[in-house]
Amino acid sequence: MKGIFIFFCLSNFLVLFLRETEAAQLQSNGIYIVYMGASVSSKGNPRNDRDQILSSLKRKKNAVIHSYSNGFTGFAAYLSEEEAESIAQRPGVVSVFPDPVLQLHTTHSWDFLKYQTAVEIDSNPSSTSGSFSNGTDTIIGILDTGIWPESQSFSDEDMGPIPSQWKGKCMEGQDFTSSSCNRKLIGARYYDEPGSSNTGASGTPRDKNGHGTHVASTAAGIPVKGASYYGLAEGTAKGGSPGSRIAMYRVCTPVGCRGSAILKAFDDAIADGVDVLSLSLGASAGFEQEFSEDPIAIGAFHAVEKGIIVMCSAGNEGPDSKTVVNIAPWILTVAATTIDRDFESDVVLGGNKVIKGGGINFADIQKSPVYPLIYGSSAKPIHTLDDSQARNCVPGSFQDDQVKGKIILCESKDEEYSAQRKFESLKKQGAIGLIMINDDERAVASTFGSSPVAVVTEEDGARILSYINLTSNPVATILPTVVVTKYKPAPVVAYFSSRGPSFSTKNLLKPDIAAPGVAILAAWPGNDTKAAVSGKGPPLYYVLSGTSMSCPHVSGVAATVRSLHPTWSPSAVKSAIMTSAIQTNNLQAPITTNSGSTATPYDIGAGEVSTSGPLQPGLVYETGIADYLQYLCSTGYNKSKINKIASSLPANFSCSINSNSDSVSNMNYPSIAISNLKENESKKVIRTVTNVDQDESVYTALIDAPSGVDVEVEPNKLQFTKNSKKVAYEVTFRLTSSTEKDIFGSITWTNGNYKVRSPFVVSSIEQMPVK
Ligand SMILES: *[C@@H]1O[C@H](CO)[C@@H](O)[C@H](O)[C@H]1NC(C)=O
Ligand SMILES: *[C@@H]1O[C@H](CO)[C@@H](O)[C@H](O)[C@H]1NC(C)=O
Ligand SMILES: *[C@@H]1O[C@H](CO)[C@@H](O)[C@H](O)[C@H]1NC(C)=O
Ligand SMILES: *[C@@H]1O[C@H](CO)[C@@H](O)[C@H](O)[C@H]1NC(C)=O
Ligand SMILES: *[C@@H]1O[C@H](CO)[C@@H](O)[C@H](O)[C@H]1NC(C)=O
Ligand SMILES: *[C@@H]1O[C@H](CO)[C@@H](O)[C@H](O)[C@H]1NC(C)=O
């Protein structure tokens, strides 16, 4: 009986339990990060307070794991709790916190459902391939699982010499020599997992996972003709910025991605001379720490200070709200959408009735429906267990003779077992195939290799059930996957993509942008026999889904913009990407979510990334370092703390007197978020736009506001001249009726040539107090 009880409660408890152990793990290894802010004092002098602390630790052999000195200062070391507390009191120390372990942002977990897909950036409906710069000579740094340098995507044929700004290196390691790097892959570093020198977790920039190789080729792989996943999705695979160079920083090991290593990689990348940093990893939803204890936020802040553009994946914990992570305002946060390609695995029923299923399988069973078809729960369960186990085909639910030679139809409402695991168990019992009912999975093209497995929607599941109910000898078969191109609608927000609003501040709209992240075909380690289908060699290109896959698409776009406009600040590039985003799909209708509702900025931020629009946006919103520091003020930092953090502080800097969460709405950000607005009340925000096109230009405001909120823009015409490149305007929001729901709209400036669009959200809910 106890077993049954656990089963019922598992899905609720599992999440809590995992989070608790995760939290515990974060504390348990004894490593602390000591963050000491900028590497020079705000007066510009080099700092020596770190060395004083380090010398006091000298008697502890091998205590210090990393020290940081280029972009910021600090170190990571094995410390006792008492030492950590005492160091936190030392002058110059901003924070001391346990070294966290962050996760890769592929779909739910690395082992669970390796969702696959194939797409080049060309299939992005907005793409104007070949008509613009390809990112020549910009350098994209990637923090990930390493790289497989032999992949054709990283060939340096026809590439010019390594850009002179490059100061990084190609670290040697296991199966990785200095000749593994070339003019494409110009740098590679790795950070050992402390205390596991010989577990295969360390010692090389080589990718033993696949994630880093996939991400790197999506950002900057060269065009490779005839790439496919065993013939599926065949075409030219290429990255978003094929002319860019790649520097891989291997921060992830099978254990996860350590905060201390991530900070070291940021510190190295800042000195190495990268233009763009791409991170497809992060904390779990609800576990993102505030600035001074969040390695990604800290590293990204100092990178942006030095002019580097930083993008991160939003996370894969959607569609629940408040799941978006990597929300610092200096980061470009990327959500995931589908592309116009479907991997279709059809189910054929008796009478040759075809049901369009999904997923990727290379099954080799009979093409006519000759296999008996049963519904999981109609096979009498083996134990006197609840029927739901059999309905979900949980391993061990059936006796061999119940499933042998048959195709089984199952629900997939349990979260413990992947379809692959269920099929493996059924196959051992002699079953032929598996049909899974799941709307979400239908949309993401999971790979099932040689196994005859297809995923159908709830609606199609009901049709199959009714066929089974009404037929005396129901039969079926499962066909191998075919690729459907020009699939409509696309893009659609992927169900797993993490959603806004941000957990910690409602006054900053996140995510910022959406990009293809479902069923993406990209390079793969050449020796992954586990990913091979039976009888074939390992795949050279592989299909994966996640915001991990969408982030490098945007990194490629950012590198292209940077190559065209080398002097633009990271915030100008970010603004260009956001204000030119697209809100319609390939049916010319608003982009929808996986469940069919119109996507809001909490799903897609400013919209789907355009590959051509950001190259000339017309106007940009510049967000300065001082704006980011004011943001820190509004989250509770005082001037003395900010003084340690910032590399250079305007002499007259002070936190604005009324600094509170409302001030965040006034940051010069390319989107607008207002909270705690009550009926008949109004709030005003200020924005400043900078003209980056011809000197003489007049822009007019177009307002898209739903009923319930009045929006006024003042002035509503902006005049730019040779001497007036920056112009400010005010927006007043007034709620005209009471509502519990957040309200979305947009403000677009246009001069006829360009449309510069900012989404907004107005919420009547009070901002959560900042911890
Ligand atoms: C990038 O563009 C440059 C100049 O247009 C061209 O010479 C180069 O071959 C291109 N590189 C790639 C990888 O497409
Ligand atoms: C088919 O029969 C099962 C039970 O045998 C029942 O749960 C289900 O609702 C029926 N479905 C349809 C579509 O008739
Ligand atoms: C693939 O190569 C890596 C790195 O050389 C190695 O650690 C791994 O064992 C290899 N995998 C297989 C399946 O051969
Ligand atoms: C700033 O805040 C810290 C705590 O974060 C506090 O110890 C310090 O006294 C404050 N400084 C000032 C000038 O208020
Ligand atoms: C600080 O000084 C700069 C120029 O010296 C000025 O533009 C800015 O408004 C001042 N800021 C504050 C908060 O006084
Ligand atoms: C808001 O204004 C309208 C019209 O003047 C009025 O009917 C309504 O009661 C007001 N609501 C509140 C909450 O004051």
Automatic annotation (TrEMBL):
InterPro entries: PA_domain, Peptidase_S8/S53_dom, Peptidase_S8/S53_dom_sf, Peptidase_S8_His-AS, Peptidase_S8_Ser-AS, Peptidase_S8_subtilisin-rel, Peptidases_S8_3, S8pro/Inhibitor_I9. Coiled coil: none annotated. Residues 1-23 form the signal peptide. Keywords: Hydrolase, Protease, Serine protease, Signal. Residues 666-762 form the Subtilisin-like protease fibronectin type-III domain. Residues 135-605 form the Peptidase S8/S53 domain. The keyword Ligase does not apply. The active site is at 144 (charge relay system), 211 (charge relay system), 548 (charge relay system). One of its GO terms (molecular function) is serine-type endopeptidase activity. Residues 390-464 form the PA domain. SUPFAM superfamilies: Subtilisin-like. Residues 192-217 are annotated as: Disordered. Residues 32-105 form the Inhibitor I9 domain. It holds the Pfam family Peptidase_S8. The keyword Hydrolase applies. GO terms for biological process: proteolysis. PANTHER family: PROPROTEIN CONVERTASE SUBTILISIN/KEXIN (PTHR10795). This is CO(2)-response secreted protease. It comes from Forsythia ovata.
